[in-house]
Batch of 2 targets.
Target 1
Amino acid sequence: MDCIFCKIIKKEIPAEVVFEDKAIIAFKDIKPIASVHIVIIPKKHINSVVNLKKEDEVLMGKLIMTAKKIADDLKVSEKGYKLLIRVGRGGGQEVDHIHLHLLAC
Ligand code: 5GP
Ligand code: ZN
């Protein structure tokens, strides 16, 4: 499958990884739009929120809990941050592998 994020998961292309476990990987966005801009993805390839199934409920909870942990680690929790999921072309989604943006100034 020609998915750039799956290639990052498989270490076929480099990324600045800030967190990784069995189910999730998080890395610095290549074109940051804030001083902290992390992309958090499940290792399972899911195109978009539109394609989520009931079985993905726990995984998506884990995605948000990982964002919380990374925000704590990067010490932006007190100041505050944004979590963003773009959905489909109309929502501005460019990479068709579901992901959460963590954005902080
Ligand atoms: P979307 O617009 O789909 O919500 O966000 C995709 C994000 O992935 C963009 O912010 C873009 O800069 C980032 N991105 C795309 N390709 C790469 C890549 O090869 N490496 C990294 N680190 N980020 C990427
Ligand atoms: Zn993928």
Target 2
Amino acid sequence: MNLQLNITPIEKWLPGYKKPVIISGPCSAETERQLLSTAEELAETGIVHLFRAGIWKPRTRPNSFNGVGEKGLGWLRTVKEETGLLVTTEVANQKHVELCLKYGIDVLWIGARTSANPFSVQEIADVLKGTDIPVLVKNPVNPDLELWIGALERINEAGITKIAAVHRGFSSFEKTPFRNTPMWEIPIELKTICPALPVICDPSHIAGSRELIPMISQKAIDLDMNGLMIESHINPKTALSDSSQQITPLQLFKIIDKLIIRESKIRNKTFEDQLEQLRNVIDELDEEVIQNLSVRMDIAERIGEYKKENGVTILQIKRWDEIANKRLNMGLAMGLSEEFIKSLLQLIHKESIMRQTLVMNTPIEKAAITETGGAI
Ligand code: PEP
Ligand code: MN
């Protein structure tokens, strides 16, 4: 996957930029008083770079609180005048963008439901042409990196170079302790293919509950993310949306204060040498793992040929069950986690079956199987 974006470094457009960037404020603007008092307390902490509040709320069910609409933009303007904080809100269509520009909102963000829809992102991109307002693009609700990249590209192609990605987790069928599963490998991949793109984590929407926010924030910082977007409310229990995940400005201050910020650059020579040695060992081990996997797959293919000659099915459930249990117990005894061994074994099994299937197929069928990664 590749991604070429024309990016203005965040330190050039976000005054006072320092890692981690802290974006905070309520899920929703509810009243002018709630907004102002939250903003005043946040400003007092001295750690907030950008004040957030949703004005138009994308709610799952139609009869929930849908946001205060345009009047909230006036309140945000007051927040800016009275506290000096820069302000940001969510936009989902052309009208939202036009109104935000009219009211002098400093930064826009595109929410997770909107970034999943290329029509909406394009509509927003079209109306942004000719402006240079910074835009934050949240990941789409579904775990699809291409879709996230596509949204970033559409905004960038409209001439917006002040951009950042926001990782807010992904919806999943599986029951997990999170409201939205983090799937850290997705933002890591995004950072890998586009190192210049700032990535900000939104622990509030990943967590869904305030208790998990410190842990997720620390993890994001350990992964060298550029900042955190955390929802805060003057009185979280009374919040009209996302009440269980909001914290007070004071709680925000305490969480950020306790974060352990590690250096991303290596400065100490001895440490550097030792790290280098350990990395060399890892490189060798990884090479061995790959060589062994390659030999293993060649043998699986030979077994496939024997099965073909003898008219035996590829899938031998009993044998696979035995292997899986034996390997699982071995891995557990050697300190590997159950989830890790199970997913690794599943991958290996899938690849083996694909290699054995290939033996039984014509060239056209083989191409279809390889292209879909064995999905058919
Ligand atoms: C929000 O930030 O309040 C919000 C609606 O977020 P998301 O788009 O990530 O669900
Ligand atoms: Mn919210």
